Amino acid sequence: MRILRFRSFRMNRNFISSNSAVLGLRGIVTSCRAVVLQRFGGPEVLELRPNVEVPDLKSNEVLVRARAVSINPLDTRMRLGYGRSIFDHIYLSYWAAILVEASAIPFAALTAWRALKSTARITEGQRLLVVGGGGAVGFTAIQLAVAAGCHVTTTCGSQSVGRMLAAGAEQAVDYTAEDIELAIKGKFDAVLDTIGGPETERISINFLKRAGHYMTLQGEAASLADKYGLAAGLPLATALLLKKQIQYRYSHGIEYWWTYMRADSEGLHEIRKLSEAGKLKVPVEKTFPITQVREAHEAKDRRHVPGKVVLEID
Ligand SMILES: NC(=O)c1ccc[n+]([C@@H]2O[C@H](COP(=O)([O-])OP(=O)(O)OC[C@H]3O[C@@H](n4cnc5c(N)ncnc54)[C@H](OP(=O)(O)O)[C@@H]3O)[C@@H](O)[C@H]2O)c1
C-alpha cells in the first residue's frame, strides 16, 4: 500500500501535509485541509487552507486519512528551498500515521534502515558507531542495530545519555563534555554519521576497521543540484562522491557512502514488527495542532524543542 503524496500539487501549490477530511473513494472525497507553500522561506510561508481539491488517484494509489505527521529537519530545510532542483514539488511531513507516536517513526527509521541494512548490511556481533544518537535517525539506528544483535556505541548530548543506554547502546559519549576520540575504544565495522561535518567525518573514518562502512546523511547531491542546476549538479555530485570513495579506499581501506532515505516495503514491514514488539520507539517531545503549523516549524528551526515535533491533524 502506498501513501498518496498528492503528486498533482506542483509549485505554487506545494503541498506539505494533508488531512483528508473524509476517507473513501475519490468520487466521494473531493477536498481536504492542506498546508501549502506559495514560495520558499521561513515558517511564515506555510498556509493552512481548508478546502484543497483532492488529486486524482491512480489505480495503484489509496487515499489515507492522516491523524498526525512528524516534522523532520529535512522538512524545514526543504521549506527553505533545499532540494528544489530535484523535487519539482515538495512533500513535507509526508509520513502520515494513525497515531501521534507512530508518526515519528517511519521517516527516521527508513533512513536508518537503508544505511544499516541496505548499505552496510550489518550482521549480528558487529560493532556500530552512531554519531548523533540523540536525533530521531540516530536513535532508530541504535534500536535497529541492537535488535540485529550488534554492539552499539553512540555520541549524544548529556540529556540523551540515559535514553541511549536504555535503548541498548553499550556506550554513550556526551559530545559536549568528552573527547570522543579518547573516550571511544576500538574499531567499528560501520559508522552512521548523522551530523556529517568535516570533523565528525574525520573522526568517524579513523574509527573504522578495514573494509568498514562510513555512511553520512549529509550527501551533497541536492545542494550541488540546487547550486548548479540538475544538469551540472548531479554529475558533479557523482564525481565528488566517486572521488571520495576512491580516496578513502586508497588511504583507509574503507567504503564511503552518502546515504538517503528510501521507501522500502521490506524495511517498513520490519520496522512495523519492531515497533509492535516495543523494540523501536521515537519519543515525541511536543505536539502541535495543524493550525499551528508555523509555530511547529519555528520550534524545529530554532531547536526550541529537543526531539521529535509532531503535527496533529484532528
Ligand atoms: N539523507 C537523508 O535521506 C536524511 C534523512 C533524514 C534526515 N537527514 C538529516 O540527518 C540529520 C539528522 O536528522 P534527525 O531527524 O535525526 O534530526 P533530529 O531528530 O533533529 O536530531 C538532531 C540531533 O543531533 C544531535 N547532535 C547535534 N550535534 C551533534 C554532534 N556534534 N554530535 C552528536 N550529536 C549531535 C542532537 O542530539 P542531542 O539532543 O543528543 O544533543 C540533536 O538532537 C539532519 O541533518 C537531517 O536533515 C537526512
Automatic annotation (TrEMBL):
<dbReference type="InterPro" id="IPR052585">
    <property type="entry name" value="Lipid_raft_assoc_Zn_ADH"/>
</dbReference>
<dbReference type="InterPro" id="IPR036291">
    <property type="entry name" value="NAD(P)-bd_dom_sf"/>
</dbReference>
<dbReference type="InterPro" id="IPR011032">
    <property type="entry name" value="GroES-like_sf"/>
</dbReference>
<feature type="transmembrane region" description="Helical">
    <location>
        <begin position="128"/>
        <end position="149"/>
    </location>
</feature>
<protein>
    <submittedName>
        <fullName>Reticulon-4-interacting protein 1, mitochondrial</fullName>
    </submittedName>
</protein>
<dbReference type="InterPro" id="IPR020843">
    <property type="entry name" value="ER"/>
</dbReference>
<keyword id="KW-1133">Transmembrane helix</keyword>
<keyword id="KW-0812">Transmembrane</keyword>
<dbReference type="GO" id="GO:0016491">
    <property type="term" value="F:oxidoreductase activity"/>
</dbReference>
<dbReference type="Pfam" id="PF13602">
    <property type="entry name" value="ADH_zinc_N_2"/>
</dbReference>
<keyword id="KW-0472">Membrane</keyword>
<feature type="transmembrane region" description="Helical">
    <location>
        <begin position="92"/>
        <end position="116"/>
    </location>
</feature>
<feature type="domain" description="Enoyl reductase (ER)">
    <location>
        <begin position="41"/>
        <end position="311"/>
    </location>
</feature>
